[in-house]
Fold this protein.
Amino acid sequence: MGLPVLSAIFRSRVVCQRGFVAILNCPKHMKASVSLFSHSAGRCTQTCQALIYRKHGDPSGVVKLEDVPVHQTGAKKVLVKLLASPINPSDINMIQGTYSILPDLPAIGGNEGVAQVIEVGSQVKSLKAGDWVIPRDAGLGTWRTEAVLAEDDVISVPNDIPLLSAATLGVNPCTAIRMLSDFEDLKPGDSVIQNAANSGVGQAVIQIAAARGINTINVIRDRPDFTQLSDRLKAMGASHVIKEESLRRPEMKELFKTCSKPKLALNGVGGKSATELLRHLQVGGSMVTYGGMSKQPVTIPVSALIFKDVKVRGFWVTQWKKDHTHDGKAFRAMLDELCSLIQQGKLTAPACTEVRIQDYKKALDAAMQPFSSRKQVLIM
């Protein structure tokens, strides 16, 4: 299979992967990493398995488990064995072709996970065999058993934290801690309100906020197991767990007799849910949108802007990582803080179902089910 000719006008850096060449472009429109089959990445010595899609569509139909060539490790590369990789909503959207950044096809699925370094090139300085690493950014294709990656494309994490915590560290906890840190000056005793509270981000928000002494008002959709889910979120540190319908009821006034009005609202749903969050913000507070699961636009009441001077912001962890590409200290400090919380038992992985990579169809189907509160994690 031949490679297309790549124009020199692209300011790209080539990453030799086991069986692939990924041309990582970072133009202004934020195009994702490009994954192409290649026979030019070095001498083939063996094969590994990877979940590949050659066209966009229903993940259960377009994703296939295939053997791909394995090539030698270059001087500035590291050979890693993938240990575990979750299936996130953004992974599904990429395969469907609906995400804001899309890799060129064919592509390997997965943007998050944890791997163990097996071998390092002669010029690699920051990593050694046995280290655990996670991707610095999206687009590396983590749904595979092995890869050869550039040293700068991964960052180390402690190998004494739980496997599932490491595998799910790079997206949701990073999103949660940035939103809690970067938009409002939250002090112990302050409050945050969020929808999608049972999501991966929502669970991380609950735990990080609790560790900082910040109250959380957590909104979830009504469901048959509401009470059990509410109890589980409260065991994580949630101050209050309420149904979507409660946002529009007088009982909210009773809640705010014992809990301060929130300075910060975190919106992962959009639509009416986001509008209701806005109504409960204190004067001058911020609503940060990081997702839109309802696929409905956010409507902002004029009164909230005029009389409460609320701020409406957005956050995308992929953009934050790209903005801090040349500031390794910021990313390192964030991971160190999160890993410290994990080691203290104050931050745990979301409820996960471990699935062998060979059973990927089962995992993909489960990941797309509504009301699912368990994250599917591929075990390599």
